[in-house]
Amino acid sequence: MNLKNMLKKSNNAIGVFDSGLGGLTVLKNFLQVLPSYSYIYLGDIARLPYGSKSADRIYQYTCQSLDFLFKKNCKLVIVACNSASAQALRKVQQEYLPNNWPDRKVLGVVRPLAEEAALNKYKRVGVLGTKATISSQTYKKEIKKLNKKISVYENSAPLLVPLIEEGWAKKSVCNKILKSYLRPLKQKKVNYLILACTHYPFLLKKIKHLMGSQCQVSDPGKIVANSLKDYLNRHPELKIKQVKNPELKFYLSDQPELFKNLGEKFLGQEMKNLKQIDLEK
Q1: Is 126 within 8 Å of 188 (Cβ atoms)?
Q2: How many CA atoms lie within 13 A of 254 on its CB side?
Q3: Residue 106 belongs to what H/E stretch?
Q4: What pLDDT was estimated at residue 10?
Q5: CA-to-CA separations, 8 to 78, 106, 229, in angstroms, rounded
Q6: What's the pLDDT tens digit per position in 19-51?
Q7: Residues sharing a CB contact under 8 Å with residue 268, sequence separation 6 or more, in sequence order
Q8: How far apart are CA 29 and CA 190, in angstroms?
Q9: Which domains, ranges and CATH numbers included, belong to the chain?
Q10: Which of 182, 181, 222, 174 is nearest to 198 (CA)?
Q11: Which active-site residues does the annotation give?
């Protein structure tokens, strides 16, 4: 393939950015719902978890990651990280893009998940997320914009991301911690639960079991994938086209061994195009 064709192909790639493994729960659904597009996945595993960082730091890390993906010719990037979507996305769209990449687009995950909860008329909605996401109250604000009558209850779960990243999702200690985080939401008798962190679907079956049949718990990756499909249909001007032989590339900001092992099991395929990079250069 000559250079011209390579650049043409890379221009079609959709960027997916997360602090670590979590974004794979979104990417997996992209590959199922939109399999004919090329994707570039960036996991900033050197600096996770984002959920315990300040808003300024999250914004800085997000901009560095977006710079990397835009330089790889991604015209559209999905910020799969809820902490970054909650704490940095608005500033990214209002300041960073106009000043640096005015022809590029960045989407987050908060809006489609909030819409799913609000438009289906659930009366008592729970939100489980990182400290950064919950402290921003972004989900509560977005849901209330759409339906003021919905009661929204939030709880942070700061230990879940490190446990999942270390491959401890199936250990009993993870189950005990998860129960303690879900208990306040169960006590509020929520009938819909938003998993406001892309890592949490690794625990989806456990969460559904613990919340019981009276509470609907959806896979956020499916919701975001369907939202992206709709967005691409409504914005042909981006010229992000389907290709016969889509590419899938992975970039990580630290040593990829554990990520690769867990990621391949989750995606059910080999991560062939995986490279380690330095986002601070």
Answers
A1: yes
A2: 11
A3: strand 105-107
A4: 47
A5: 20, 20, 21
A6: 999 999 999 999 999 999 999 999 999 999 999
A7: none
A8: 26
A9: 3-109+223-276 (3.40.50.1860), 110-219 (3.40.50.1860)
A10: 222
A11: 81, 197
